[in-house]
Amino acid sequence: MATPEFILKLREKIGTDELWLPGVTALVRDEAGRILLGQRSDNLLWSLPSGISEPGEPMSLTCTREVLEETGVKIEVTGLIAIHTTAPVTFPNGDRTVFVDHFFDCRPIGGQAVVGDEESVAVGWFDPSDLPEPLSPGVGRGLGQARLYAETGRTQFD
């Protein structure tokens, strides 16, 4: 994915210094309990749909936009599973970023699972007991948080 214009403008001012950005991750489960995953084009790991918020964009809208753009699936956000801050990430160009991720529980309401943009090479629905490899480590963490959210009804913060 091309770097959004607002980030390029910020980078002109701060260079490669650490930049904190609001992000979203979506756990989309269909009626059969399958999970929507995309295989990333940059590292070929299977991951939950995710992305960053545009300035002024509500986080739940970011989530619905990102899932639609990446997977072709229209969703409804049904809950906030967790909010957590990632470890610092250094990109190949030296830019350093920390993401404050908002992890949403979602259900599909339309569309078909297809590769929607250049961020993915494959998209599909998977049974949680039979997930594809190689799998992003974030998927396991997210499924654990989702189980705790389902059991307690409480959003996790860390």
From TrEMBL:
UniProt domain Nudix hydrolase: residue ranges: 19-148
Keywords: Hydrolase
Needed cofactors: Mg(2+)
Pfam families for the chain: NUDIX (PF00293)
Keyword Protein transport: no
Hydrolase listed as a keyword: yes
Name by which UniProt lists this protein: NUDIX domain-containing protein
The organism's taxonomic lineage, starting at the top: Bacteria, Bacillati, Actinomycetota, Actinomycetes, Kineosporiales
